[in-house]
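Weekly structure sync - notes
Attendees: PM, LS, DV (DV joined late)
Agenda: review two folding runs queued last week.

Item 1: First target. Sequence and structure tokens pasted below for the record.
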Amino acid sequence: MVQTVLTPEQNYQALDRYIRERMGRRIFLVHGRSFPRTKAGAHLRDFAERQGIALVSFTDFSPNPQYEAVIQGVERFRRTGCDSIIAAGGGSAMDTAKCVKLWANLAPGENCLRQEIVPNQIPLLAIPTTAGSGSEATRFAVIYYGGEKQSIAHESCLPSAVLLDPSALGTLPDYHRKSAMLDALCHGVESFWSVRSSQESRDYSEAAIRGVLRHLDGYLDNRENGWEGMLQAAHLAGKAINIAQTTAGHAMSYKLTSLYGIAHGHAAALCVARLWPCMLEHPERWRDPRGEGYREEMLARLGAAMGRNTPQGGAEAFQEILRRMDLTAPVCTREELRRLVLAVNPVRLGNHPVSLDAADMEALYGSFLACGGGRDD
């Protein structure tokens, strides 16, 4: 599916046209709580009032969306007779809206995770308010069921259109600004070295990484030119992972997020910062079928994308950015370390270019988590 990319130019003229032509008269608006205070949020409300369009608001989801919350969204979507969906917010709003669309026509009362997906034509418009997840450009969603992460992948999850509005980034809290940027950077790095990468995805990845670095200072200083550049970089990183998918960095990060309550990008960056040197130190574990010549070329190109002359320099540049963010790692007990290792998704490890086992996971976690004896949880 070709995704329509809209901009806020000329007072959101393209957005207005798309809604009139594609979205119907009742729109299910899945949004973060700050969205109504953004320029796009205010414009959407005023436009809907002028056009007589009903906006059915849904905000009852958490930063790590729970299955039960998504089901509430599905039921509300059906009950209110909505024609289309707008997802406005960060990755959590995107993931919730994607699953509402995906499950809207499944059998009520039965577990949606166990049903066969029946594709539908419900329009889904994405309005990202963070420069991080890139979810507006992917066919993936993540929710939690029974405390465990569930990865959803289906072409119907890909939004039919996206509005890239840099002004939405202006009100982000400092921690979320940093963690979102780190998520985008991790997407660029992981999709670049993924065994599923292609020339197209690596081009997206490289452009995303260079975009993050180019606009980092302006973005952290909360300047308008930094917003636009970082939003574009995150979107490109999303296009990259839509092809190549993520690897061990994300596989290791999800339980960190749910166990300690740190932001997803923060958790992913802690993992990638340790995985990168590990990959360089163990060429004998390389398993990408494209071979040693590809390995050398890929790592050199990745280092160059990070602004360095060597593969090792690329890893060091990433670590320097993480240190600059001044984000601490959690402290874990031995039992929590065991739970972290057991929670790693082996499918994501299959995308990683070097082989890793449970002992490697424990050593990698232990290299950045202060782990002691402690209680059994």
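Item 2: Second target, run right after the first with the same settings.
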Amino acid sequence: MIEIHNLEKTDSVFNQYMAELRDAVIQQDRMRFRRNLERVGQVMAYEISKSFEYDDEEVTTPLGVKEIRTMHEQPVIATILRAGLPFHNGMLSMFDQADSAFIAAYRKYDKNEDSEIRVEYYSSPDIEDRILILCDPLLATGESIVKTLNGLMEDMMPKEIHIAVAVASQDGLDYVERTMSRLPVTIWVGSIDEELTARAYVVPGIGDVGDLAYGEKR
């Protein structure tokens, strides 16, 4: 069974960042929107780090030696372009020696308004037997997350998989749980929304994260 950690259930400054991330007025400041995504990524990276394995390390200071518990290994942080870039940067500022993977995926609509998720590009280091964190600001249907993970794991299997999202629909979480239940997956979510529209919009959601961060696309 997949474990889900919902960070909004604990009162902290994290919820202030989430409130600003959703606020339609504050969103008009594009730089602040990106910064809030980064801050959400930083807090989530800190929470994820608590689940890692740690070793004793001796650190030499100017006056002596101190034994400190440090991470046994650095993760691989993967993100889906382009919306995930600020979120990824926030995580990378915490796991500053981590490797990175980038995936190009998008939802394609046809003339009948039917849609499918297309994944067209992977750039990834070796993730065999490593800790993989897949971060994406919005989990709507869950299809892009599942397709991305299946593509990354085509010939490599991580020992741990962490899915980190700022906002998720309940339907999307249910879909990921059904399809990924046999894998070592933990989901970290900033907030869960109940409504998912026929066009895969999460309500109240955030909006189009890529457009809000970088400008409208053609």
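Discussion on item 2: The first strand starts at residue 3 and ends at 6.
Action: LS to circulate a short write-up before next sync.
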